[in-house]
C-alpha cells in the first residue's frame, strides 16, 4: 500500500510571522515572571521593614515606660534605709545642712540608677530617626530632660534649705527676705515630690506631655508597623 503525504506549502512570510509571534509570547511570559518576582521581592522587603519597625517601636516604647517609672520613683518622698546608710555628716556641715542633704540623697541615688536606662533610650534615637523620622528620634530626648529637671529642682531645694540654715536670724533681721526664701522653699518642695491629686505641678505636666507624644508616635508602629517618615 502506498501512502501519499501531501506537503503543505505556507505562503511567503507566514512562517516568519509565526516565529515572531512565538518569540513575542515567550517574551511577554518572561516579563510577567520578572514582574511577579519583583512584586514578591518588594512585598518581602516591605514585610521585613514593617517587622523591624514593630520590633524597634516596641523596644523603644517599653524602655520609655521603664524610664518614666524610674523618674517617678525619683520623686517619691520615702527614703529607704539602704539609701541613707552610707551618708555621714561632714565636718563643715551644720545639722540642718546634713538633714537637707539626707532629704534629697535618695533622689540623686535613684537618678544615678536610672541613668543607664535613660542613656540606652537616648542612644536609640539615632536608629529611630533613621528608620522612622527625625521627630521619632527627637521626642525621646524629652525623657532625659525630664530626669535632669527633677535633679535640678532637688539641688535647688537643697540649696534653699542651706541658705536658710546659714542665716538663722534672718526671720528677725530681714523678715521680708525670710518670707521670700521660705515661700521659694515650699514651692520647690511641692514641685519636687510626687503626690496624688497634685494640680498644676510642672514636672507632672511635663511627664504627661512627654508620655503622650511618645505614645502618639510609637503605639501605631507597635500595633501594625505604620508610621509617617516625613
How would you sum up this structure, described in words?
The protein has 230 residues and is mainly α. 77% of the residues lie in helices and 0% in strands. It contains nine helices and no strands. α1 packs antiparallel against α9 (202-224), α6 (142-166) runs antiparallel to α8 and α6 (142-166) runs antiparallel to α9. The longest helix is centred in the N-terminal third of the chain and has 61 residues, at 14-74. The termini are far apart. The mean pLDDT is 84.
- Unreliable spans: none
Number of strands: 0
- Radius of gyration computed on alpha carbons: 35 Å
Percent of residues in beta strands: under 5%
Main beta sheet: none
Report the structural category: mainly alpha
Distance between the termini: 85 Å
Report the principal-axis shape: elongated
Determine the fraction of residues in helical runs and give it as a percent range: over 70%
Question: Mean pLDDT, as a whole number?
Answer: 84
| Element-level helix/strand string | HHHHHHHHH
Amino acid at each position: 500500500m502506498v501512502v501519499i503525504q501531501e506537503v503543505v506549502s505556507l505562503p511567503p512570510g507566514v512562517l516568519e510571522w509565526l516565529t515572531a509571534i512565538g518569540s513575542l509570547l515567550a517574551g511577554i511570559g518572561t516579563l510577567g515572571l520578572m514582574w511577579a518576582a519583583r512584586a514578591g521581592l518588594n512585598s518581602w522587603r516591605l514585610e521585613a521593614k514593617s517587622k523591624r519597625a514593630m520590633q524597634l517601636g516596641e523596644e523603644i516604647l517599653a524602655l520609655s515606660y521603664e524610664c518614666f517609672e524610674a523618674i517617678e520613683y525619683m520623686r517619691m518622698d520615702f527614703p529607704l534605709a539602704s539609701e541613707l546608710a552610707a551618708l555621714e555628716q561632714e565636718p563643715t556641715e551644720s545639722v540642718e545642712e546634713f538633714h537637707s542633704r539626707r532629704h534629697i540623697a535618695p533622689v540623686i541615688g535613684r537618678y544615678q540608677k536610672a541613668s543607664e536606662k535613660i542613656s540606652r533610650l537616648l542612644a536609640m534615637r539615632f536608629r529611630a530617626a533613621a528608620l522612622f523620622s527625625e521627630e521619632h528620634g527627637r521626642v525621646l530626648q524629652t525623657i532625659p530632660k525630664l530626669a535632669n529637671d527633677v535633679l535640678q529642682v532637688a539641688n535647688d531645694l537643697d540649696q534653699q534649705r542651706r541658705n536658710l540654715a546659714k542665716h538663722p536670724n534672718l526671720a528677725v533681721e530681714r523678715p521680708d527676705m525670710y518670707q521670700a526664701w521660705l515661700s521659694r522653699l515650699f514651692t520647690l518642695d511641692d514641685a519636687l515630690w510626687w503626690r496624688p491629686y497634685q494640680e498644676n505641678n510642672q514636672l507632672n505636666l511635663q511627664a504627661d506631655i512627654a508620655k503622650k507624644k511618645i505614645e502618639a508616635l510609637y503605639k501605631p508602629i507597635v500595633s501594625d508597623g505604620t508610621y509617617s517618615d516625613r
